[in-house]
Amino acid sequence: MIRSFLAGALLLALPVAAQEVKAPETALQRIAALPAEAAGWRRADVTDFEARPSGAGLGAAAEYRPVAGGPGVATLYVYDRGLAGGATLASLDGEFTQALREIEMLGAMRRYRVEARLPGPPVLGAAGREALRCAQFALAFDGGNRADSFLCLGVQEQRFVKLRMTLQAGAPEAEAQQLQALGGALLSGMR
User: With a threshold of 0.90, does the pTM exceed it?
Assistant: First the structure.
């Protein structure tokens, strides 16, 4: 009788124990969990870079556009670059330098040139702490259009989190507020 009771109790406990051990979320799962709308922006395309040939470590991304329409695009990337043990704060400086270089190298292909690069306002996370460090770019496109672009990068749960936001050049304070509002909302949505 005691044996059958213990066996029954063990059978009941196994599913509970199995539920507690959870595999880490993939980059795509973390992106898919982001809100459809956040801070006046609506999610558009989601891209799974990991599924592409040679895409290991490149993660996934979600693009956001202003709900009201008009110019502006923001893309949140989650990836680990295939680093053993994942992304760390120690690897953040090198990744930030690489991301800055990518913006400057893409200029010819995307038909813009970087006219200025400055430190940008950080995106704050929980408890008002800096979650993403940022750089701000003044871009001049062929044809005369100008844009302000932000690159923000941090580490969350052993993955790099990169936010790129590009807005029509104009009001720096309003742009910084949009960056903070959307960045903060997306970081909260990833928890």
Answer: no
